[in-house]
Specification:
There is one protein chain. This protein is α+β, with helices and mostly antiparallel strands. The protein has a single domain, classed as Aminopeptidase (3-Layer(aba) Sandwich), CATH 3.40.630.30. The protein is about 35% helix and about 30% strand. The protein contains 5 helices and 7 strands; from the N terminus they run βαααβββαβαββ. It has helices spanning about 10-25, 35-45, 45-55, 110-120, 135-145; strands at about 1-5, 60-65, 70-75, 90-100, 125-135, 150-160, 160-170. The longest helix has 16 residues, at about 10-25. The two termini are about 25 Å apart.
Length: about 170
């Protein structure tokens, strides 16, 4: 497996894998199919992803198998939107980390996480944060294994449904 920073040339791949991996992770775990579809259509459209890829605040990573097929992706966000919630800490954020379902448990998430931690250090950040759905104990345990600790709750809007996410923080040394 190879992890690489993606570019605008990867837009079609990112559009496909972001929607597919999000659906596989959450489609059967939501209260409103209308809200879910609305969120997916907006968050993972080619236009939205193009804006994010071209933003200086975003770093997208692609995980590829030995045949250079995309099997997962991640996104780091550098706009400090959580600064007020983190007592003013300058912090990079893991906004997304997903693998296609057939690769769950095969080390894709771990490889993406290790690369994200490496990039965090390279970018000069001393802290990294993320939010994770509070009803996803498997993901919470995964992040805890990397040293993330719960520091609060943030809202996640899925259409007109507001869900609670656990805000987690890690000091990067």
């Amino acid at each position: 497996m190879k992890i690489r920073i993606s570019t605008i040339n990867d837009l079609q791949i990112l559009t496909r894998i972001s929607e597919q991996s999000f659906r596989e992770a959450f489609e059967n775990n939501n209260t409103s199919s209308e809200n879910f579809e609305e969120y997916v259509k907006k968050a993972f459209s080619a236009a939205q992803l193009q804006n994010e890829i071209e933003s200086s605040d975003s770093i997208f990573l692609l995980a590829e198998d030995q045949d250079k097929e995309a099997i997962g992706y991640g996104k780091l966000r550098q706009d400090n939107r959580r600064k007020d919630l983190l007592n003013g800490l300058d912090c990079i954020e893991i906004e997304r980390i997903y693998a296609l379902k057939k690769y769950w448990g095969k080390g894709v998430g771990k490889a993406l996480m290790l690369k994200m931690l490496e990039l965090t250090k390279e970018q000069g950040y001393q802290h990294i944060c993320l939010s994770v759905y509070e009803e996803n104990p498997k993901a919470i345990r995964f992040y805890e294994k990397f040293g993330f600790k719960s520091v609060g709750i943030v809202e996640f809007k899925l259409g007109d449904v507001i869900e609670d996410d656990v805000l987690m923080l890690k000091e990067v040394k």
